[in-house]
Amino acid sequence: LRIHEYLYFQVLSPGDIRYIFTATPAKDFGGVFNTRYEQIHLVPAEPPEACGELRNGVFIQDQIALVERGGCSFLSKTRVIQEHGGRAVIIADNAYDNDSFYIEMIQDSTRRTADIPALFLLGRDGYMIRRSLEQHGLPWAVISIPVNVTSIPTYEMMQPPWTFW
After folding, report:
1. What are the phi and psi torsion angles at 116 (to 5°)?
2. Is residue 11 packed enough to be buried (19+ CB in 10 Å), middle (13-18) or exposed (0-12)?
3. 79-108 pLDDT, tens per residue?
4. Pick from 10, 64, 1, 16: which is nearest to 38 by CA?
5. DSSP the chain
6. pTM as predicted
7. In order of start, what are the domains of the chain with their CATH numbers?
8. One cellular component GO annotation, for this chain's record (predicted)?
């Protein structure tokens, strides 16, 4: 059994989802976070699966993209975001009720590579972030990534109420 490596990020805005979320890095492709971003935009890709040209690619430049699983490989999505100048991609499961099962993102059968970090997010978390942005009419969330959770006292850890830690 492989123990998952986790990476954490915190949504700073909108306030109704101001939680620390858990994600898992891609197993054998993508870069690593060499920089901690105190405030960076998490921009939902349009279209959500990010398998080709993006309608909102200009907003992904120098930001982090939130994309949805499905339609093409994890690596293809990562490359689309990288080509649009994104600093990283967070790929949410397309099973909106998934609140506990992390999928291992692996290289596809092509010989392509990607340099930006790629993270997998539980479907429930991705859904709740997108839903909050829609309810507030916002084009993106503001996040801090990565977050060192070992320095945060347990009683102060603001994890999503729908997730079991």
Report:
1. -85, 155
2. buried
3. 999 999 999 999 999 999 888 888 889 888
4. 10
5. -PPPP-EEEEEEESGGG--EEEEEE-SSSS----S-EEEEEEEE-SSTT-SS--TTHHHHTTSEEEEES-SS-HHHHHHHHHHTT-SEEEEE-S-TT-SS--------SSS----S-EEEE-HHHHHHHHHHHHHHT-S-EEEEES--GGGS-GGG----TTS--
6. 0.92
7. 7-156 (3.50.30.30)
8. extracellular region
Q: Which residue has the tokens 């080509």?
A: 83
Matching residue, tokens 């689309």? 80
**The length of the chain, given as a count of residues:** 165
Q: Tokens standing for 63?
A: 């930001």
149 is written with which tokens? 């959770």
